Amino acid sequence: MNVGYxxxxxxxxxxxxxxxxxxxxxxxxxxxxxxxxxxPTPFCPFSKILLNSLLAEKNLELNFIIFGGGCDAGRKxxxxxxxxxxxTPCHYLHIPLVSNQESLKFYRHSLNDLANKLLSFQGxxxxxxxxxxxxxxxxxxxxxxTRSQNFLTGELPGDSLLWDKIQLQSSLDSTISSKxxxxxxxxxxxxxxxxxxxxxxxxxxxxxxxxxxxxYIFPDIEYTPEHHALDTLARWYLVNxxxxxxxxxxxxxxxxxxxxxxxxxxxxxxxxxxxxxxxLYDLSFLKKQIKIPLLPVEHDMSYSSIGQxxxxxxxxxxxxxxx
Amino acid sequence: MNLKASTALSLARFFANRKSLFHLLAIYEWxxxxxxxxxxxxxxxYQLTIKTIRELYSHSRPVIWSSLFFPCEFIHAVGxxxxxxxxxxxxxxxxxxxxxxxxxxxxxxxxxxxxxxxRAGVGMSLFKLFPRPDxxxxxxxxCRGTAGFFQSLANIWKIPCYxxxxxxxxxxxxxxxxxxxxxxxxxxxxSQINCQLDWEETFSLSNATVKIIxxxxxxxxxxxxxxxxxxxxxDYLPYYxxxxxxxxxxxxFEKFLEHLQKLKNPSTNSHRLIWLHLKxxxxxxxxxxxxxxxxDVVYDEFASVFWEPLEPEKPFESLAKKIISSQxxxxxxxRILRILNWCxxxxxxxxxxxxxxxxxxxxxxxxxxxxxxxxxxYPVLLLDGDHIDKxxxxxxxxxxxxxxxxxxxxx
Lengths: 323, 411
Hints:
The structure holds two protein chains of two kinds.
Chain A: E1 2-5, H1 12-17, E2 21-24, H2 45-56, E3 64-68, H3 72-84, E4 90-93, H4 101-122, H5 126-152, E5 180-186, H6 191-200, E6 203-207, H7 213-216, H8 229-240, H9 249-263, E7 267-273, H10 277-289, E8 294-299, H11 306-321
Parallel strand pairs in A: 1-2, 1-3, 3-4, 5-6, 5-7, 7-8
Helix pairs in contact in A: 2-3, 4-8
Chain B: H1 3-16, H2 19-23, H3 25-35, H4 41-58, E1 63-66, H5 72-77, E2 81-83, H6 85-94, H7 99-107, H8 116-126, E3 135-139, H9 145-157, E4 161-164, H10 172-192, H11 199-220, H12 237-240, H13 247-262, E5 271-276, H14 286-292, E6 295-300, H15 315-325, H16 332-345, E7 350-354, H17 360-363, H18 366-375, E8 380-383, H19 395-410
Parallel strand pairs in B: 1-2, 1-3, 3-4, 5-6, 5-7, 7-8
Helix pairs in contact in B: 3-4, 4-13, 6-8, 7-8, 8-9, 10-15, 11-13, 16-18
Keywords (chain B): Lyase
Enzyme class (chain B): lyase
InterPro entries (chain B): FldB/FldC_alpha/beta
């Protein structure tokens, strides 16, 4: 069974433990034609692209879709989709916007509900699910911990996270010292292209996007096999993961600040989708709190502004070089 | 900013920061009471506004800011003064003063694509023109942009923001989750201010006020009845939210009911409409256009009672249920069902929603809303614009859309 999901707060370990295959949803096509009648103009571009892809592409071969997220767009995407495709099995996972003991307990309860729904599809017992989850957590912990340590020490630049590369790049690239290290903050869209563009401009890029750092990096991750597996999973994703914009802004700032100081990041390129409230508030917050230059670049659904982006990135490079 | 605006702003900031000056308003209040011993509805509203300004700016008790769907009964019960920035921004816009805070927020990296209620609230806080808060309380119900707004306020005012995370469904676990969050917040507040929680009186006042609101609704259900001018009821939002659970709200609605009962020939218009979401608060031609095309607003979504009576013996559970019930305004199947019921009960001919540019939750539902209501035979008019930011207002476009809707209803 293929289970689609797109929010980085949805643990893929849950899906795997139900003997299903997690499919992280991101569309290659930027088309929105089929979504336009259903969503208004001032609305998240990623939601439009995703809805279009879910409605138009019949070859996604998804048996189940998990929606979730802390934004209104994510919720409305789910509302529209179930109204249009009532026969497609799906689930909305509530992601708490706060991180405390109460929210952790509720998130764990929500994860349990999700697991039960998936288990009923797969005909697997709760006992087997927990056993599977324990094995997966053992394995997942090592990967998450190693990858997080490597990334946070600056050893996984470029698109390493995007393609889940395990090879450390610091020792391979002899031109590193001449490059300007920057952190790319972005959502799901255009990440690969933007990394490529920035690398062409002689930047050493660290991927802080929804498909990179926000999805894969778990600073201070801990694992006690004696604890209940769902408790562990809830803690990893709600407490230990790098927070997305809108979730725990203070903790997000602390992690970014620590990373910036440790790796010697000289600037931030904030590539954000138009009409994304989470990113817009995050941008205003970081702009005031972070003391290194920050370049905000807004995008909609198209790649047509690339010329403009390039000009701004060139100018930003000059600013950084002059410092 | 020109010199005149800058001087006015400096003066406003000077006065806003001098608590003692606001105590003098008590003399004016005393004079008003003497001059109008039997105040009319507008006089009542005016007197309550002056009293609230004095209390808020003189800081006679702790001031708690909260988001629209945080139940104010909680704030009244702890003995603090509630302040709802999203409501007050409507007043700022009505006074024609919203451009300055909006522009200032934009200069401070708050994009014009964000909700203008929030953006202007940020601007007014950056200017330090709003009364200084002691606590910030918000819920994530209805609109999750509220979380970003209140987190921004926390950074501006340098105080913590207590955010209540609200699930979409009313399940026992969800009630327990919200009630535990409320309980933790109460402990935090009690440790900082000396408060005696008075649930009994506050809940009793709130429930009694709701009964009066229901009496007003009964009046509005009569075919020949409508509050004039159309959308006027939305100007009374503070009494539905900020003052609910206080004697002020009960007193106001008693006066309002009395006022409505005395009206002779309250409606001559021919089309009865349900009004969804809020309305533009800056000076505009909307009311004139609604009257010109004979539209009455017979019910307003944001003035609806969406919760069950509050129970003082189970205060946190009761308030938790009220908070989660506010999701009735954003979960499509629940919201649409409520609107259909109103259409039937209030004998409405159609539905109007004035879209708010930065409001994802309401606009994201437009397709489902329009589609379902039209299938049930109720025409829907979705007007595009902004409630606070006049930049998005176009009178000609408004006229054209209302005219076209009028033709549909006439047809």
